[in-house]
Amino acid sequence: MHSAAVRRLTGNEHLGVEFATEWPLYDLDEKTRALLAYAAKLTDTPGMVADADIEALRAAGWDDRGIWQATALVNMEGPATRCRVVGCAAPGRARDRVELHAGGRSYG
What we know:
The protein is mainly α. It has a single domain, classed as AhpD-like (Up-down Bundle). Helix content is 63%, strand content 0%. The protein has six helices and no strands. The longest helix has 24 residues.
């Protein structure tokens, strides 16, 4: 999920880029944690998203509109971010740049 959206969602304007990979270590409410878990799964393993994931969001307090908006945001920002990262990398160094930006996650 886009970092600016997460800052608005959590009300914490001081979250840095490390939050993208370290969010499980933060003290978050159940609703926020459920959304971030869903966003991570949708980003990392989209083929594994199932009805149970949507039900978990509903159980945490998300309505269908919020779930749709989060899904749309993740689906728009994920590819756009990967393109920006690779697009500004020097030839031959794109993979290093992507891994650095991903905080250890591989997108390739």
